[in-house]
Amino acid sequence: MLDVRRIREEPEAVRERMAVRGDSGLSALLDRVLELDASRRGLVAEVDEQRARRNEVSPRVAELKRAGRADEAEAVIREMRDLGDRLSAVESRLADVEGELERTLLEIPNTPASDVPPGGEGDSPVLREWGEAPEASFERRAHWELGESLGILDLPRGARIAGSGFPVYVGAGARLERALINFMVDLHTDAHGYTEIWPPLLVNRDAARGTGHLPKFADEMYHAAEDDLFLVPTAELPLTNLHAGEILGPADVPRRYAAYTPCFRREAGAHGKDTRGLLRLHQFDKVEMMRFERPDASEEALEELTGHAEVVLRALGLRYRVLLLAGGDLGFANAKTYDLEAWAPAVGRWLEVSSCSSYTDYQARRANVRFRPEAGAKPEYVHTLNGSGLGIARTLVALLETYQEADGSVRVPDVLVEYVGKDRIA
Q1: pTM for the structure as a whole
Q2: Residues forming the active site
Q3: How far is CA 26 from CA 107, 208, 373, in A?
Q4: Per-position DSSP letters for 10-38, written without gaps between them
């Protein structure tokens, strides 16, 4: 969440950056925060004043009784009783105000970084491209047709088992999915210095709140109501909360983690969009990179993190481009995001396969993750960053449509041959 002091001390600067998101309702939320903060500070002062008065008056009771002045002692006791009632009432109002202040702050997104442009979907500038559009002397088949003809993708049976958006990978398709996962995890751990984590696939409310997924995106998460746990929509949730409530030492930051998880997203409101094949799923696999950084290193870390995702695409030989997301398309907790999109030649579309984001101290404040810059120093909030390294389903789409041959077979990229065990799927 945002720092209340920053909203109080720099209200216009915060409003200016929030305007980049294009959400007119945020101004009213910021106004309410300022009102509640002023009330809270006034009530805190009143509580402190009354507690000081109680501490001042309390010793007089014993003194008056020892002096034999019982009537005066009784008067002081009545004053203390009235003071206690007033103090309880003020403390109750303070608790209510603090509760509303926290709830309001939880509804306010992160402020976009200074270089995030205004605009919505379609307004994000393309920063760079890599690779050429693959040429073919035959008409390419969409991945769902190709997958069915090769017997490696069974969407009807997946829909029969769980519904649309839950694919079944068969034989070489399952092996290719697993190969992509293993290749990415090995690359990020062996070459990029990330520590592999195998996290829980369910998280509690505190963990989901810490990353900004609750309360904003409750409708998009699968909820196990009996245990009040949520299936992870991304490994970002368990990885970010590995250090929730901790104060890390000077040598503990930076930290890099990588994890593979299945991901589960209801995507409320997205029904009917991109429903064919693997373009929009409710269950999909993803390899995630997660970093805890010192604030002065987080900008450079975002560039490096994005570069690590790009290495995967180049190793697979897939054409891709990098976009800087405009403010209106920016995630709720994100301060800055680069989207990586791979080209799928048969469907003729760019497909998002990774989002690499900086959250500054927004998530760290919600999850209470701090560090000491040096021994004995006052704790500060870390900066958190994460990025897909990559999302498997859409990467698989781009791979199948890029590497298909005229005879209906699919060549296996060189870096995956040792994982798949062969150089062609036919």
Answers
A1: 0.92
A2: 265, 280, 352, 355, 394
A3: 9, 22, 33
A4: -HHHHHHHHHTTT-TTHHHHHHHHHHHHH
